Amino acid sequence: MNRRIRIIDCHYIQPGFAASFLVHEEGEAYLVETNTLHAVPLLLEALREEGIERERVRWIAVTHVHLDHAGGAFALLEACPEAMVLAHPRAAKHLIDPAKLLASAKNVYGEEAFVRLYGDIQPVPADRVRILEDGEELPFHGAKLHCIYTRGHANHHFCLFDPVLGGIFTGDSFGLAYPGLQRNGLFIFPSTSPTEFDPTAAKETLKLILASGANRAFLTHFGELRDLNAASEQLLEHLNFSESLYVQARSGKEEFEVLRSRFVTELRNNFANLAYRAGLILTSEDWRMVETDLRLNADGIAFAGIKARPEQKV
What we know:
The strands form 2 sheets. The protein has a 6-stranded mixed β-sheet with strand order 1-2-3-4-5-6. A 6-stranded mixed β-sheet has the order 7-8-9-10-11-12. It has 10 helices and 12 strands. By secondary structure, the protein is an alpha/beta fold. The chain has 2 domains: 224 residues, Metallo-beta-lactamase, Chain A; 76 residues.
């Protein structure tokens, strides 16, 4: 078999921040992650450069429906008329009817910023969505892709393992490893962003990915990772600290705004400590790059902890 993979930088927010993946063999292809509407021309150009006809794209997998992973799904489907979107059952309903998802995102970003980041998102036709079950296998060019449900970051998240590549597409379930932070070896950290962070499930997901048979991971944020065991060890350290904050939020009485402010500071300090232990001296550019992630992580931990309080709502 002569299976090839191309990592496509979607230039979301900045280069080296979010990727999509094109896998192809003898003219047949599948894509993992669509990123946003603005990235679709980049994906189509990658198909052209690889000599793949759009009609030969079979699957378009979205690991979950956060908009930097699935926002361009409807437009990519329009351009690839024979493709089907692969989705978790909880994600499929938001692809088919994105009204609640869009309203929530616009409430967070504001209308103008939303359009700038994501463009005009339209529903995906229901007859072009294939819902995947945990453990389901999908045929692709003489082999089978394996679906693995991976909770922790989001309840509607799955990973896709390609045994021919020996690689697993991990979405946001196996951390963020921005190229700019890899200058002294591996440095990776988790995404605990709202609204479904579950520390126990996130740590279980690490085990599932290590047990998948993969010897390489393809991270949406960002690119290929070879040392899965070392990555899992680093992620576990971050997750253990995040879980300690989650427990504080769950057992305490502080309001969301108070918790998120405190957790941002504590996550920054822990991030700096783990970076130093990894031999990474953080620059002002590094902090600028991860600031949004750390704030979102603090939000997710605070939100999840408060939500877990008895008879408590955020």
